[in-house]
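User: what does the whole thing look like in 3D?
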Amino acid sequence: MKERTKLSIILETKNLTKYFGGLQALRSIDFQVKKGEIRALIGPNGAGKTTFLNVLTGLYPPSGGDVQLKGVSILGLKPHSITQRGIARTFQAIRLFGEMSVLENVMIAHHCRTKEGILSTLLRTEASKKEEKMIQERALETLKAVGLDEKKGQVAKSLPYGEQRLLEMARALSTEPDLILLDEPSAGMNRKEATWLMERIENIRTQGITIILVEHNMRLVMNISHRVTVLDFGEKIAEGTPEEIKNNSKVIEAYLGKKGDHART
Amino acid sequence: MKDRMKSYSQALWISIGSMIILLFPLIVSQYYQQLGCVAGVYAILVLGYDFILGRAGQFSLGHIAFFGIGAYTSALLSVNWSVPFWLALPAAALASSLFGLFIGVPVLRLRGPYLAIATLGFAEIVRLILSRWDRVTRGVDGIAGIKAPTIGPLIFDNTVSFYYIILFFLVLMIFIAERIHRGKYGRLLMAIRENELAAEVMGIDTSKGKIMAFVLSALYAGVAGSLYAHLFSYISPETFDIEHAIVILYMLIIGGSGSTAGAILGAVLLTFLPEWLRFLKDYYLLLYGIGIILMMIFMPYGIIGLIRQLRLQVFSNH
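Assistant: Here's the predicted 3D structure for the full assembly of 583 residues, as structure tokens:
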């Protein structure tokens, strides 16, 4: 029985700590996400949510503790190897390949699942032609799924903001992840777009992909996440179902401040 | 129908262009024959520069050093050991590529102006070694007597025949560059230029990609260097100084970086332009400078950017 629960945990951090100089951005965080879960990560600005994602994806080395993906430590791996092992992410500030086409943006993300070397692309061997065709077909499928296939030839930076966010998500999914980290996906979206996004996230989960969602939009968080983890000042202050979190006094305090505490409001 | 018209006119332009390029040395003076050869060598050099600067977006100023390493490798092999051109050229390409690997690894972490300064330092070191290590490089006197290429009984010792050797290599190098740029590795380099962090997080080994760009660009410079050495049969360190590092930067930026046609246009234009401006005598450099400033203001994407813009306007008017 214990074995089984262990297997169903896709991501685990133990005692994860990160200092920036004297600032403790993450304080020994123990965190577990089950396979197939939608987990929201919330907290006031500066709580350490994005830092947490950056440590998980290898952009920052942690100061202490461990990160395990499917039971194997990924500490010290470069971001690209972590992606190859199955974690994808989007960014809070959009980071597309602006001058490249919408299709190319997605094709790039397929690269980490391909193996043809430069010599075989230079000689245009059968294998490399097949691979290139496969990359293109898959990228087109992905674009179709998010409804961007008609804009495949446009340069990414020419898309409207909402579609840029969408493209970023499509691109992250194209790395064929087991776990996807979405950093404020609804930022800058109106209510209608956010609702549509919610459906998309549900849809990603049904493909068997686990989701960690950093989000400020509480309607979205409360509607789709199975569990919510709350960070404040780099510390995990609460964890539970959306219902539990809504009524947690520590959480309310973190967001609204204590009575008479003007410094945080 | 329109597409067909377009492809006909394209085919027409291409055949007129190739005719001019093929017949060029037969209809011009010897002086222009030589300029044509130099333009071809610089086109290969700048095509290589485009890998690192235009495609991968790494602001290296060290490209001229790889040109020098290629030229000196080829020259020394030819003069000291009578190695034929057809072996000296690949050896030069290999030597330059190895230096590309050498310099690519330590400067990986450097970006923008820091990378520019570090690679400029590398170029300066190479130039100093070329001009001071008298015993090997013969110092500022340079190396003379570099042998002309031969194929069986044919000796390519005049400018016209050498023009076709350069043309052969230029076409070959264009072919290789285009294959890479249109495939997944070209896409990979562009992704590094557009957003290195995102590329890394999307599963691309950006360190490996940047080293690859350095090695490829150095390989091109090595080929160009070897051709240069055998073209003039004489080389000296001043061809590989900082001033020339800036000239090839101009060539790429003015032609249009990130574009094969741009790199070639820039190299050809800036080879011929100084000669056309020669009548201005002392004012030449002044006008040259002003011209470059104006071009950067009015065509920030280079000649190729201007052409694309014009074509877009022409087609949208129809």
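In plain terms: Residues 38-239 of chain B form one domain. Residues 100 and 215 of chain B are 5 Å apart (CA to CA).
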